[in-house]
Amino acid sequence: MSDTEHTSDERTALAGEDHAGWRLDRFLAAALPDFSRARLQQLLEASAVTSGARTIKDANHRVKPGDSFTVTVPPTAPAIPQGQDIPLTVIYEDKELIVIDKPAGLVVHPAAGNPDGTLVNALIGHCGAGMLSIGGEARPGIVHRLDKDTSGLLVAAKTERAMASLAKQFANHTIERAYNAVVWGAPREASGLIESQIGRSPFDRKRMAVLRSGGKTARTRYQVLEKFGPLERPFASLIECRLETGRTHQIRVHLTHLGHPLIGDPAYGRARTAPRGKSDAETAAFTAAADFSRQALHAFVLGFQHPSLHKTMRFESPWPADFAHLVDALRNLNKP
């Protein structure tokens, strides 16, 4: 495990045995969860990360047990988000709302460690300062979130009417949300409902966990779409998840609880040992999975009732390149 501590302008992360061989940006993202990987990569490029007397700028630097890294954090930006010229992939937009295909690494709204460079800053820059009046200045227009390293579809409100309508739909669980996930191994049952109470872990307040008591009810339906590797013991699998509730880290926590954490998940996954004496395809598949630099989770379907058009809007997002490359490498395990 890692130990972290911080002062007003520095954060320190100590690598443990289980971090051996990790990319530096992935390790720092796990050790300092308040920071996005994109933000940490910016700090690396800005020579803000040191190990002893050495400055490290390479995000792909491999971590060794016992390595200590110091991240020097610049002063925070003003509390009111500012518009920034950040490219957005806009899937749909009208006067009421905007649907974005969010890339992995983009934080949704400003918070500690990510004072700017967020989706909120991009939305203000794209839609205008009028966004600040929608739903409050801290998270203007934001009705729901995706984790910083989850890619895919997200809707934001541009009017108070849209904000109220979408918030009600999310509260009533009438929003259609489907995700693709790549996990280690494969669930025993091809499909099912995972239902539990989710809340803050009593052992690590930065993580969520399935609780025996307390927390909030969480329901995730899943279906195994593909299995990769031997049928009797699959190496990994592609899963579709549909949310019936929207708790923090819900899919990540539920699939970990099922015994099949997401590939690349820095918080809920675990290190895997490379296979020995395996075929080239197996070695390549393991390498692709072990080096995947984020949780393998993509929000590919989003559907809702338009606040003023009174019709169902439904959008689909193709896999981003890194996700597609991972699946392609795993599919090679099934070739004769």
Map the helices and strands:
Blueprint: E1 3-6, E2 10-14, H1 24-31, H2 37-45, E3 49-51, E4 54-55, E5 68-72, E6 90-93, E7 97-102, H3 119-127, E8 151-157, H4 160-171, E9 176-184, E10 191-200, E11 208-211, E12 216-228, E13 236-243, H5 250-257, H6 280-290, E14 297-305, E15 312-316, H7 321-331
Parallel strand pairs: 8-14
Antiparallel strand pairs: 1-2, 2-5, 3-4, 3-5, 6-7, 7-8, 9-13, 9-14, 10-11, 10-12, 12-13, 14-15
Helix pairs in contact: 1-2, 6-7
Q: What is the CATH homology-level superfamily of the largest domain?
A: Pseudouridine synthase
Percent helix, as a range, is 10-25%
Please state the structural category: alpha+beta
* CATH topology term of the largest domain: Pseudouridine synthase
How would you characterize the largest beta sheet?
10 strands, mixed
Radius of gyration: 20 Å
Number of helices: 7
Specify the CATH architecture of the largest domain: 2-Layer Sandwich
Question: Low-confidence stretches at least 5 residues in length (pLDDT < 50)?
Answer: 1-8
Question: How far is it from the N-terminal to the C-terminal residue, by CA?
Answer: 40 Å
Percentage of β-strand residues: 25-35%
What is the general shape? globular
CATH C-level label of the largest domain: Alpha Beta
What is the β-strand count?
Answer: 15
Overall tally of structural domains? 3
